[in-house]
Amino acid sequence: MFEAQRVRRNAQTAEIYPLRIRGAAMSIATMANWGANFVVTISFLTLLNAIDGVGVFFLFGFLTLVALAYFWRKVPETKGRSLHEIERQHTGVKAELPGRGVAVRP
Length: 106
Fold this sequence. Notes:
The protein folds into 2 domains: about 1-75, no CATH class; about 80-105, no CATH class. Helix content is about 70%, strand content about 0%. It is mainly alpha-helical.
């Protein structure tokens, strides 16, 4: 069950990248995810010894709120828009349909 959820989440993540950079972008995203997990794993026991369990909980909770505020302000809403529209907004270039070489008109 957990494996199916992980596969579905990774498939959804891959869909947000344009086809021309999807492989490299997923590699970077995966490495960032593993890197963040490594930092949390390595720092947890040190933080637990420095401050108690409640302090560690609130520290990670605070960092989560900071991340949420950052993404709330910096990441644009994309609900109801196609990947081609989003790419055109960020690059200013007409996106091409995969495999057809046909530009999408705004």
